[in-house]
Amino acid sequence: MATTVSHVTHARVAPMATTTKVTARTMRTSGVQGRERRTKPGYFVKGRTEASKRCRGMISASNEANSLPEVSSNLDRRTILMGTSLLAAAGLVPPQAYAAGDAAKFATLAKEAVDENVTASWEICLKALLHDAATYDKATKTGGINGSLQFEMDRPENAILKEVVEQVSAVKAVLDASDIVLTPISWSDTLVLTGLIKTTACFKDSLCSKVKEGACDIAYQAYGNKPPTPKLGRIDAVSADATGLIPADGASAAEFKAMFDRMGLTKTDLCLLAPALTGDYASGDALLRADPQFVGIMDGLEKAKRDITRTSYEVPFYRAYIKIASLGAKFVDKVGYFQGQ
Fold first, then answer.
1. Could you tell me which residues come within 8 angstroms of residue 47 by beta carbon, excluding any fewer than 6 positions away?
2. pLDDT tens, position by position, 127-163
């Protein structure tokens, strides 16, 4: 596989700190490891389950079963401004190695570019990421996340991804044209950011479907599960990866498990990423539930999704996302996207 090193970025970031003091009871979960964070009365309201069109099946009607406190919240101006400024970066906080102002501007620019150019669903974005990464072979250390999907659109399994591939390219064009960016961002980095921004928006909508009118941003800042900022600086391939590695439409759960085994991923990873298998939340879930070996895991995840903050679902999901966003990735060594470095 030939690669090019024309794209320059590399960084890890510290997690976003939550500045709001949180008290009260701890929500309990079962089926998946993890703890629900403590929630304070004031944001949540029983029975509020307005589902965003962009998230479709992500927001479950089972939210109505949660008994949530119906009390008013007193939000001071400082807290509102703090939450708004942090959310502007869509969870992408400035890396320590970057000039803070420019990195924050880049994060905001990326979110705006995705919002304006990507109409594909979060599931289709996730499927595109999986198909780009799914050529990875743990045994031979070949393939992986490298942007080769751009050159593989003639393959039947990628027919459903034509629109999202074009939209990711449009996002890349916006970022490349910005004065904030010093060198072109790689296509694979753009794909990773696009899927993460789309999915994070859905997770935020899920939480906000349970809160009082006008309290969404503050509730998310206080109790939402913030996405990890992915390491950037992936080197793009200049040609297609090997063919015949991704199951065709209509494949069984066992075939997808074999693919995940080759990639070095687990059954839990497979269940967390179920929407990526078909590009649809409901059908991906149904596909795995048709195989008894996945039913227990899927039941545990479903219970986790019914909790108020869904921490025991969303945090493992983000871990699985970062796994596939890193499979076989080759990174450049020098930081260089942002001015002031």
1. 64
2. 999 999 999 999 999 999 999 999 999 999 999 999 9
Yes or no: say if 35 and 118 are a contact pair by the CB < 8 Å rule.
no
Contact between 231 and 10 under an 8 Å Cβ cutoff? The reply is yes
Helices 122-133 and 162-177: angle between axes, nearest 10 degrees: 90
Q: What is the mean pLDDT of residues 163-192?
A: 92
User: What's the predicted TM-score (pTM) here?
Assistant: 0.77
Angle at 183 between CA 182 and CA 188, to 5 degrees: 130
Q: 67, exposed or middle or buried, with CB in 10 Å at 0-12, 13-18, 19+? A: exposed
- SS3 call for 76: coil
In the numeric block, which tokens belong to residue 273? 């990423």
Q: What is the pLDDT of residues 227-267, one digit of tens each?
A: 988 888 899 999 999 999 999 999 999 999 999 999 999 99
CA angle 41, 45, 47 (to 5 degrees): 150
d(CA 332, CA 321): 21
CA diameter of the chain = 59
Tokens for 54? 């962009």
3-state secondary structure of 44: strand
The mean pLDDT of the chain is 77
